[in-house]
Design goal:
By secondary structure, the chain is mainly beta. The protein contains one helix and five strands; from the N terminus they run ββββαβ. A five-stranded antiparallel β-sheet has the order 4-3-2-1-5, covered by helices on one side.
Length: 78
């Protein structure tokens, strides 16, 4: 089963994007539900990074070799 961003949330954050490393590990881009100076969060394994904008979070991920996860071939939701 492939996870969707809407499957991943908690009391403080909603997941907006799931990216993947070259090794196939998941990287989550989340947005804080309440406003703060650093609304965006990138989570990879046991590391968490905070950013002021969605673009900064995505740029960070892309610069570190991440890309948007693609559904497996033949997936109807593609």
């Amino acid at each position: 089963m492939l996870l969707k961003p809407s499957d991943l949330y908690n009391a403080a954050y909603d997941c907006h994007i799931i990216m993947e490393t070259l090794k196939g590990e998941s990287v989550l881009i989340l947005k804080k539900k309440t406003d703060s100076p650093m609304n965006w969060c990138v989570m990879q394994k046991f590391s968490t990074y905070f950013f002021a904008t969605r673009k900064e979070a995505i740029d960070f991920c892309e610069k570190n070799g991440c890309s948007i996860s693609k559904p497996p071939r033949g997936d109807k939701n593609r």
